[in-house]
Design brief:
331 residues; mainly beta; Complement Module, domain 1; four-stranded antiparallel sheet; elongated
């Protein structure tokens, strides 16, 4: 009986106003289906104006962006013509050294989104931003942000390239102006674009501003092997021998062909058993036969058993002053 009524309604609607309207056959929904499909199949073909609820499979949505909606029978057939559209998820995008500023997490088929690279990085074609599109099989491509280096600032030199941006591991050659050099008489050099930027700044120095080996110091020396020539602004570090105290800066700098003032190595005070026996004293709280103290250190003494102080109490707290210490005396 229901089938007969549906057939009559379909025929009536199809012939309304003397115009024949083709009914809609059962819809074949790719990546989705009608709700209650088995029950509703009995009501087809359907007359124009009829609507049915349907759903989309995972990773697909309706044109309105929902996971379900209504499909409508019209005189031109089913609407929407593509009920379920492919979606792409932001979580499927792997972007290193870049970011997507849009807040949405799901994008429908053919949707294009923009991404931006972090400072110091660019797309494969050298731009600061790019785009990818949601296609039937997923994103058109994974966004790529590649490390790049801008043309550096040159000092007394010039680049041997007309490039503007350089990719990771690219090498840039440069040459010094006349009368300038890098080191050891070289007038050309190269720098490499690395993850941290250029390997070094291309700098050429006036040949007359170089320095020879740094000056030697007593009871100390440099921490590195000496070179015959040092370029301006070179730094060399000093250190003292054991028990000697370094006074001044650890470093000297080459400037205008001369080194800055080197440090001094101050003599330690050597407390010997011989000197303590002469004064009938010993170290307080220590049993050392020989003791080294740096300048400024306080050395505490005390009388040996059976002897009494012959100098002031303060003298038993002697201060080392550049290798010299005044011993207290006991009688």
């Amino acid at each position: 009986m229901l089938l007969l009524i549906n057939a009559i309604l379909t025929l009536w609607v199809s012939c309304a106003n003397g115009q024949e309207v083709k009914p809609c056959d059962f819809p074949e929904i790719q990546h989705g289906d009608l709700y209650y499909k088995s029950l509703r199949r009995l009501y087809f073909p359907a007359a124009a104006g009829q609507s049915y609820s349907y759903y989309c499979d995972q990773n697909f949505v309706t044109p309105s962006g929902s996971y379900w909606d209504y499909i409508h029978c019209t005189q031109d057939g089913w609407s929407p013509t593509v009920p379920c559209l492919r979606t792409c998820s932001k979580s499927d995008i792997e972007i290193e050294n870049g970011f997507i500023s849009e807040s949405s997490s799901i994008y429908i088929l053919n949707k294009e989104i923009q991404y931006k690279c972090k400072p110091g990085y660019a797309t494969a074609d050298g731009n600061s931003s790019g785009s990818i599109t949601c296609l039937q099989n997923g994103w058109s491509a994974q966004p790529i942000c590649i490390k790049f280096c801008d043309m550096p600032v040159f000092e007394n030199s010039r680049a041997k390239s007309n490039g503007v941006r350089f990719k990771l591991h690219d090498t840039l050659d440069y040459e010094c102006y006349n009368g300038y050099e890098i080191s050891y008489g070289n007038t050309t050099g190269s720098i490499v674009c690395s993850e941290d930027g250029w390997s070094h700044f291309p700098t050429c120095y006036n040949s007359s501003e170089k320095c020879g080996p740094p000056p030697p110091i007593s009871n100390g020396g440099t921490t590195s092997f000496l070179l015959k020539v040092y370029v301006p602004q070179s730094r060399v570090e000093y250190q003292c021998q054991s028990y000697y105290e370094l006074q001044g800066s650890n470093y000297v700098t080459c400037s205008n062909g001369e080194w800055s003032e080197p440090p001094r190595c101050i003599h330690p005070c050597i407390i010997t058993e011989e000197n303590m026996n002469k004064n009938n004293i010993k170290l307080k709280g220590r049993s050392d036969r020989k003791y080294y103290a740096k300048t400024g250190d306080t050395i505490e003494f005390m009388c040996k058993l059976g002897y009494n102080a012959n100098t002031s109490i303060l003298s038993f707290q002697a201060v080392c002053r550049e290798g010299i210490v005044e011993y207290p005396r006991c009688e």
